[in-house]
Amino acid sequence: MSKVRGYGFTRRAAVVALMASVALAGCGKSNDAAKPAATAGAVEKPNLKLGFIKLTDIAPLVVAKEKGFFADEGLSVTLEPQANWKVLLNGVVSGDLDASHMLAGQVLAASAGIGAKTRLIAPFSLDLNGKGITLSNQVLGMVGTLPDGPVSAAVLKPVVAKFKAEGKPFKMGMVFPVSTHNYVLRYWLAAGGMNPGYYLPGDTAGLTGADVQLSVTPPPQMPATMEAGTISGYSVGEPWNQAAVAKKIGAPVIVDPDIAGTTGDKVFGMTEAFAAKNPKTVQALLRALIRASMWLDADGGKNRPEAVKLLSNSKYVGADEKVLLASMTGKFTFAGGKTVATPEFNMFFDQQASYPMYSDGIWFLTQMRRWGQIAESKPDQWYLDTVKAAYRPDLYDAAAKALVDGGKAPADAFPKTDGFRAYSRKAIDGVAFDAHHPAAYAAGFAIGLKDGQKVTPAGVK
After folding, report:
1. What are 288-328's pLDDT values in tens digits?
2. pLDDT digit string, tens, across residues 295-304
3. May I ask which residue range the UniProt record assigns to the signal sequence (predicted)?
4. Which of 448, 451, 452, 450 is nearest to 199 (CA)?
């Protein structure tokens, strides 16, 4: 696999960079008035509205629009910010949004029968990793000197105990009950010996048995909510961890590759009905997004500074360029002012980041079961069937083939895969993820539901 952001890259990455630049030649920057290419008649719906939340992982969408990849496919796309993940989900389900930047968990929860009642699919992964956990200055002061390297949640145990002794709950924020941010925060807390709480059937709070109370806060509101003292820390995507550093109200202590290893993050999602009704449109969207993700990770990440300028626009993320540049160029400032290289943060194409891997989706489902969102134990086949109903690599493969056949991407940019990623990053607790045996993995944690257990108002039974 190629490497990104100044850490060298292989011949394949060089070829990808060359093909991306060739494909871009003659395709000027897009804007709201840009005219779609003459191929517009080939798609069922050339005028589209796509939703997003203000996070750096919308980069493929922004690049596809601003660099003209959507227009080159005959599409006139409006990118529309949404207030929060619930509003965004409702927009996709209602059809107000044609497709959207989405939480992988939103698509998978619908497939698992615990989320939206409308069938949703994800034919494209927007990125891998991209999340951090930030603590407030108050908490960092109580913790004292932190160890070098990834910080275990065990350092919070005395702080949580002090809060409890004073009759106060220790609260942290995450962005949505089925978000990666929720699951990596829970993973981190549990690995440090603290219970983040279980979900009762139909419950969205997840506070049963909790040592630490987790609550939902929209990503852009995280810093202000922590500064107000409502929460003492949070799990969120960028730029809202580095924003805490810039505002001097707190700092991140760990990023997600060091928590559960490599994890999926956001996806490009839509209803199954939209995909069935507009197959040519979906293929056009995917071709544009693949080209955008290639551009983002091409040639050692040389395009990332330009991407940061696009994202900093108020109509997209609207954050300071310096804040955005930190994570987008592989550098992350942690507590104590230590700036560390994080080359696996926000991967868009490298390591097949844009491919909707079954194994990435299965990991989400195991965490839903671990914390009770999936109320009963499930066999391994259920996990596979559920993810296959939601993740659509067949649609991705068709778009990739068209790019190769059209000379817009090299064939070796798309290695053959069975949809199961080889996970080499170790989780903080040392537990290895085996996507082929998800039931045993989900039940194998010291803190988490075991096989056959259920969550009741009286606790885990």
Report:
1. 999 999 999 999 899 999 999 999 999 999 999 999 998 89
2. 999 998 999 9
3. 1-25
4. 448
